[in-house]
Amino acid sequence: MNIDNTTATICLQRLCDGDSAAASDLFPLVYDELRAVAGAIFQRERANHTLQPTALINEVYLRLVDQSQARWNGRAHFVAVAARAMRNLLIDHARRSQAQKRRRPDDPGSSDIFASPDADPLDVLGIHEALEALSALNERQAKIVELRFFGGLETDEIAALLDVSPRTVKGEWRMARAWLQRRLDATRE
After folding, report:
1. Domain that holds residue 108
2. Helix axis angle, 21-43 to 5-16, nearest 10°
3. How far apart are CA 147 and CA 104, in angstroms?
């Protein structure tokens, strides 16, 4: 990831200390990285998704810097939390879309803004449910999947965040991917 870690960490510390100007200073330092994370997430989404990466980034960023009690342990921690927030926003969006589809056509609250004949919000929800199930079995594996899949973090960054070796991360990643694949295949049948 191509961010000046020192400058970003200083901005995050200033933000934690209540310096509201730090949010403006931090945004250009993390925007490209958050954009890359969102881009990777949206590559796995359907082409006609109604939520756009820029809107997702802006919403997540505003939520994260508005937290008065957040304690950031550096850039990688911030990106990891941002990845989780992006995942949660996509899940909420998929749930709203699914609820919208279930409404009666004559329901005055019904709208086609989120509904699309090609939409399949169950993919996002299915992944979320599979990750929740994995978390109940092995929380570290679920965290590794989240950091890598949604956060776009590299093995070394994940290892540093979780205080384990890169070899452990690689092994856990392989096991988690295999478990999730079996789980998702089973739910599709």
Report:
1. 5-188
2. 120
3. 39
